[in-house]
Structures
1.
Amino acid sequence: MQFLNKSVVFILTIVLIFILVPRPALSEMSDHGLEKEVKALKEKVEKLGVLERLGERVGLSALVEVEASAGNGFNGVDESDIVLATVELGLDAEIAEYVKAHLQFLWEEDDTEPIDMDEGTVTVGNTERFPVYFTAGKMYVPFGAFETNMIQDPLTLEIGETNQSAIQVGFEVSGLCGSIYAFNGNIDEKEDPDDKDNEIKCFGANIGYAFEGD
């Protein structure tokens, strides 16, 4: 009987709670919990939207080259080696409709230690809307054409390739492209910054035409 009395009291307590607590209050509690869930879901969607927009504006690229060689030297000694020749990491960002940034880090075994800022430029312009653009920063100036299918860089590229901090003004229209550029080369640079020879005296220009063949 005592157990039944306790059960009856418990049931009556639950009934009284439902009677005394207004239904709108219970509804408000339920709505508040639902509102919190919806808000949390919206925050997750907004975060995904930010990442999606970031992915549309930022591009990443990478290059890894491993070289293996074997041969017989002039002294008659056999030689063989495996080298992690090149590791490149690139980042391209569209800061605004007419402003883009480009970064490229380079590591070459026994050459760049620990890692080198190979390229870093800012470009003002959008050739899809306006043909003229301006680029400033560290770049490979467009001196010569060194396209090749060889595994290693040809001697012409090793001699003629120029990587300098420079400014460049160029254009692209209907397949025709060209630019002029200027930089302070290494030949006349001296330790004294007041020396008149430490000036921008290197200039260049290039022009080309690109077309698609059958």
2.
Amino acid sequence: SYEFLSDIAQTEYHNPDTSENSTGPKAISPIDHFTDPELDLSERVSQTVDELRTRLNTSIDPFSNIVTVEVTSQWKWLSESINRSMLELLNETNVRKRGTKANLERVFIESRQAEAQRDLEQSEDLLADFYNRNRRMEDSPALLAEVARLQRRVEVNQQVYLTLSQSYEQARIEEVRNTPLITVIDGPEGSAEPLWSLIVQIVLGTLLGFGIALGYILSAEFMRLQNIRGLPEYLAFEKALQQTWPFSKMNR
């Protein structure tokens, strides 16, 4: 999203290589790297976000659901730093959203739990009052039916209250949980490659694909010619040509 990339754009990244042979500045932010400092801040952020979108590439493996994130920049350390920052910010955003959702659920369940508790207490009071007013119920089917109905209401209200209590505790746990939702298989550190090597791989892949396609076309043409030479019309034409030109010989 725009907000996500705008945070990345304004984050300052430090070069981990402090030696004299290090490449690039000691520290820089994408907004300073890609835009003119004389421009308005909002315009600089917008331009940097657009630039980051062109330099950011994501791919998803349909079989393993593994997401690969690639970032292209002038320096290896900057690409790796931006990549790491994106992963951390994405995790923080997901954890914050999960906490907000759990908070809303907790507030809702808390109010519903209070209502369920009142319903349970009311049904229990009705059942207790019924027992106080009806000491002998064995000979009255109507009283037995009424007490069964009141007992069922108490049981239902108990179940609702217990379910809400469990959901409430679960929502409280989710509200404070900060476990990352994303598992990083291979971190970006040390994974950056020079852009020219990627270009070479693309060119070699293209040439390989072209060679395979050309080989397929030539093979198909050869098979077509072989099939034509086996036809009776072709054999008759070859025989007539040899009779007309005795010294001629067609390669087969």
